[in-house]
Design goal:
By secondary structure, the chain is α+β, with helices and mostly antiparallel strands. It folds into two domains: 6-92, Gyrase A, domain 2; 104-210, 2,3-Dihydroxybiphenyl 1,2-Dioxygenase, domain 1. 29% of the residues lie in helices and 26% in strands. The chain has helices at 6-10, 33-50, 77-92, 114-126, 173-182; strands spanning 18-20, 23-28, 55-58, 63-67, 104-111, 132-133, 136-137, 146-151, 162-167, 186-189, 196-200, 206-210. The chain has an eight-stranded mixed β-sheet, covered by helices on one side. It has a four-stranded antiparallel β-sheet with strand order 1-2-4-3. A hairpin with a 5-residue loop joins strand 11 (196-200) and strand 12 (206-210). Helix 2 (33-50) runs antiparallel to helix 3. The longest helix is centred in the first third of the chain and has 18 residues, at 33-50.
Length: 215
């Protein structure tokens, strides 16, 4: 099944959901554990019927849901269809969604030799040197954040440049950037916005606020 483009996802009418990185995300405000547990059970039944299974995180006040097609490494119609059904299920129970809440943390490492260092980082983070998908170290169990290798020019003197990619819904990115600037940060580069905006703290440590737009 083919991966949907960002405009196709945004046109799917998924008011409860936002695309972040490779998946659809939402948070349902269940407000108590029993309601959340019942919602998780109902979503599980839907997933079994559809033959497609989301990642679910149950906490006392909310349930986080992540949908992606692992065989396609992205979002497909299988995901948007199930997202609609999950939203309908929640709405029938009077459970509201907060589509502004989901956030995905991604690690980025500049390198001119991703093939050379990839197995090391895959083994270190997941225990499996083969846990690589293109330029990404992917932990299928979800224990650690996604690590991706940002290509850079070769350099004679070894150096290390990590930065954080903070994925947020596209309609809250501006507020997140404003909050970081108000807290003492600076915008280093917004030429890639709305796809990504580079920020720095007062020590010069950098991070990117990323959205699905423009990709």
């Amino acid at each position: 099944m083919s991966i949907l483009t960002t405009p196709q996802i945004l046109d799917a009418g998924l008011e409860d959901w936002r695309p972040l990185a490779q998946a659809l995300h939402t948070r349902f405000l269940t407000r108590d554990f029993t309601t959340g547990l019942a919602l998780v059970s109902a979503i599980g039944a839907l997933a079994e019927e559809a033959g497609h299974h989301p990642d679910l995180t149950l906490t006392y006040p909310h349930v986080d849901v992540k949908l992606m097609s692992h065989d396609s490494s992205g979002i497909t119609e299988r995901d948007t269809d199930l997202a609609h059904r999950i939203s309908a299920l929640a709405h029938e129970r009077g459970i509201l969604a907060d589509a502004s809440a989901p956030t995905v943390l991604e690690l980025a490492l500049d390198t001119a030799d991703s093939a050379g260092i990839g197995p090391f980082w895959a083994a270190l983070l997941t225990g499996d040197p083969g846990a690589l998908h293109g330029d990404d170290v992917v932990d299928p169990t979800g224990r650690v954040p996604l690590l991706w290798f940002q290509h850079t020019d070769a350099h004679a003197t070894p150096r290390q440049r990590f930065h954080l990619d903070v994925w947020v819904p596209h309609d809250v990115a501006g507020a997140r950037i404003d909050a970081a600037v108000a807290a003492g940060g600076t915008v280093v580069d917004d030429a890639g916005a709305p796809s990504f905006t580079v920020l720095a703290d007062t020590d010069g440590n950098r991070a990117c606020v990323c959205t699905a737009l423009g990709r």
